[in-house]
Amino acid sequence: ILNVEQSPQSLHVQEGDSTNFTCSFPSSNFYALHWYRWETAKSPEALFVMTLNGDEKKKGRISATLNTKEGYSYLYIKGSQPEDSATYLCAFSPMGQNFVFGPGTRLSVLP
Amino acid sequence: DAGVIQSPRHEVTEMGQEVTLRCKLISGHNSLFWYRQTMMRGLELLIYFNNNVPIDDSGMPEDRFSAKMPNASFSTLKIQPSEPRDSAVYFCASSLFSDSYEQYFGPGTRLTVT
Fold first, then answer.
1. Do B102 and A102 make contact, defined as CB atoms within 8 angstroms?
2. What do you get for the CA distance between the two ends of chain A, in Å?
3. If DSSP codes are grouped into helix, strand and coil, which group holds residue B86?
4. Among A51, A97, B34, B81, which has the highest number of CB atoms less than 10 A from its own CB?
5. How far apart are CA B75 and CA B78, in angstroms?
6. CB count in 10 Å sphere of residue B91
7. Which residue in the set A34, A98, A104 is minimally distant from B45, CB to CB?
8. What mean pLDDT comes out for the span B36-63?
9. What are B55-92's pLDDT values in tens digits?
10. Average pLDDT of the residues of chain B
């Protein structure tokens, strides 16, 4: 059974703070790592797909890095805003299509 | 594009009844995934199809669950008979069989079995 872990489980930050969280995945048989943003009562929305060791992706204030050799990815949010409040999911893909989702990090940004 | 469409959005049923959840893929996509989300287990893959063919159904909990793709753009997930422990949010996602395999999720169906 493939194990994908995320930490912390939940996080509260003040508006304007920068924050980051971690996704850990098996380092063998790596194909891709996906990050999703999931707001309450909505469906998960794709943020990034990362495939190469050392990849760094950026979308606005959110960025992500990937280390496939050691099996982790970081998601960074710079200058958090209340609208960033959501659960951030990572999904490990060992064979392309078959995603194994982590439990998520629930972020609350306090105004 | 309207995105992935799921119906119904909410379903409340009594134990023992048959439940059918529906999903319409994004036009042009050829892969379909059914997920179940619960507080205890998070987001779990139940089954997925490529070009209407089931590829991996190892996540289907038991024989009470079945999924079909009668055509290239539509799928159903059926639970018969339903049980209270089936209560969850069921998501459908579609993707294009390509390099990135990016999956696009529907709004989900919240199922409550009493």
1. no
2. 40
3. helix
4. B34
5. 10
6. 25
7. A98
8. 90
9. 989 899 889 999 999 999 999 999 999 999 999 999 99
10. 92
